[in-house]
Design brief:
This protein is mainly α and 98 residues long. The chain is 78% helix and 0% strand.
Length: 98
């Protein structure tokens, strides 16, 4: 029962913050997609497209890597908060056993 009360209290204080962040929109990458050449274009056009495509691909990959770093920071913070909560619950339970 004591664990239930502690969890309920934790949920009451964290629910608004969790849902507020969950609705935040994140802008997509500002990478410019190259226009694909038609099949009838010259080899020079294809080479130019290949260069632009590689630039676009690198841009998207960099964007994804940056977003993963940001996401990992949030996961780490959430895990630290849960670990702190768990340690606190153990402490409270130990105090009430005495």
């Amino acid at each position: 029962m004591k664990n239930f009360f502690a969890c309920l209290l934790f949920a009451a204080f964290t629910t608004d913050a969790v849902f507020a962040d969950a609705t935040e929109t994140v802008a997509g990458p500002a990478c410019k997609k190259p226009v694909a050449p038609s099949a009838l274009r010259k080899a020079d056009d294809t080479s130019e497209f290949d260069d632009k495509f590689e630039t676009y691909k690198s841009c998207v990959q960099d964007y994804a890597a940056d977003q993963q770093k940001v996401a990992q920071k949030h996961v780490d913070a959430a895990n630290a908060a849960i670990n702190d909560l768990n340690a606190y619950i153990v402490q409270i339970n130990e105090q009430h056993k005495q």
